[in-house]
Amino acid sequence: xxxxxxxxxxxxxxxxxxxxxxxxxxxxxxxxxxxxxxxxxxxxxxxxxxxxxxxxxxxxxxxxxxxxxxxxxxxxxxxxxxxxxxxxxxxxxxxxxxxxxxxxxxxxxxxxxxxxxxxxxxxxxxxxxxxxxxxxxxxxxxxxxxxxxxxxxxxxxxxxxxxxxxxxxxxxxxxxxxxxxxxxxxxxxxxxxxxxxxxxxxxxxxxxxxxxxxxxxxxxxxxxxxxxxxxxxxxxxxxxxxxxxxxxxxxxxxxxxxxxxxxxxxxxxxxxxxxxxxxxxxxxxxxxxxxxxxxxxxxxxxxxxxxxxxxxxxxxxxxxxxxxxxxxxxxxxxxxxxxxxxxxxxxx
Length: 348
Ligand code: SAH
Ligand code: SF4
Fold this sequence. Notes:
The protein is of the alpha/beta class. It has ten helices and 14 strands. The strands form three sheets. Strands 3-4-5-6-9-10-11-12-13-14 form a ten-stranded mixed sheet, with helices on one face. A two-stranded parallel sheet has the order 1-2. The protein is elongated and about 70 Å long. The chain starts with a strand and ends in a 33-residue tail after the last strand.
């Protein structure tokens, strides 16, 4: 059986308008069973059921957090597991999706990095996360208007599959999303940034910088020695020049490592002329983490210093900490098992 989510709407099975009907069932109605597609001839439904599968998971588990976000744990068909998070705040339904099982970058502060690399996810497995969440939430997949690829994995090291999933999200007959509402977050892979600029899809780029000097950055991101900061920022400048999309810089504040005032000043200097926005991320602790977060007062001081120097800065206070759904906590550890019963047909 082949994954139907790998197909663009125009490639779907069936003649002429049948393709549009199937796309509507998949992406507007969120059907997880061909039997639901009642306006298709029975013979076609049966043929579809024999040849194609609708979900990439054998099991979907949901863990609601006190703050309204829900962490989802997916068991893939080969038994590996990956995760996503649903954030329904302020009428902006957002999902944070994974692009891999684990991650090869091995960042010191990230629980995903600590578990190592499993494998890349396929385009169908990336999309299936969104569809499974919509189904479980009882909403149309099209009601999810924001996607961030900030779950497990490094999207620019799985760019072919990620781009395919993004193209289906953008497709008018699929999820019809706005490119401005899709964000790819990267640890900084210059080649991937150039390719993304070439593709010119209009999606947003977030760069996880975490340090203004290479020495500190290498301590935080072991793979950083391959790409010096100057090379990454040159790629980011190119992305901005080509796409006119302001790039967000993510900076997780770690006590005594990257939170000194001189580092704030160096960062401000580095960002001159880049029109970037800095997102300071308070560290989310996890068991066995080899680093500590900067205390609240230090976070506020770092932000103040950046603002004083004219850098637009915000602090992203985390959500979902209690269920391990906050940034970098996604590593399949489930602190409070609260298995929510799934509706009929989910995770099929
Ligand atoms: N690999 C990509 C996308 C996934 S990580 C990247 O690194 O950008 C998404 C974001 O979560 C990154 O900015 C990362 O720095 C941040 N993050 C990871 N672990 C964290 C933790 N324990 N606390 C706070 N932020 C963390
Ligand atoms: Fe991978 Fe991003 Fe975690 Fe680094 S922060 S290990 S790049 S998922």
